Amino acid sequence: MEYKPDQNKVPKWFDGSIYEDGGYVTNPFTGAGVDLTNVELSVYDFIKGAEAVLNHTALPASEAKKLTRTFRRALSWFGNANSEAYMVLLD
């Protein structure tokens, strides 16, 4: 049986801010959108922010490695927690 994390439970490794409310998010390229829980939205925003930092900022190697590891964890968690939203927003 495939592991599916609770969409409303904050992952232990996540130390970012957790929003009080979820929201509707659209893919800027396709216009398709989905509703996210507060935890999903918090992790999604982390993913997008980390992606921007990793693509556009020169970080020291140790910081880049740590951020990349957390970024990959976030992608994995998001895909497992809400595969439909992952396909719409991040695939």
State the main characteristics.
52% helix; 91 residues; two-stranded antiparallel ribbon; mainly alpha
Write a structural description:
There is one protein chain. 52% of the residues lie in helices and 9% in strands. The protein has helices spanning 38-56, 61-81, 83-89, and strands at 23-26, 33-36. It is built from three helices and two strands; from the N terminus they run ββααα. The protein is mainly alpha-helical. It has a two-stranded antiparallel ribbon with strand order 1-2. The protein starts with 22 loop residues before the first strand and ends with a helix. The chain has one domain.
Question: Counting H and I runs of at least 4 residues, what is the number of helices?
Answer: 3
How much helix is in the residues? 40-55%
Q: Tell me, rounded to a whole number, the average pLDDT.
A: 93
Unreliable sequence segments:
none
Instruction: Please indicate the percent range of residues in DSSP E strands (runs of 2 or more).
Output: 5-15%
How many discrete domains? 1
Q: How many E strands? A: 2
Tell me the series of helices and strands, N- to C-terminal: EEHHH
Q: Give me the Rg, rounded.
A: 13 Å
Strand pairing plus helix content: what structural class? mainly alpha
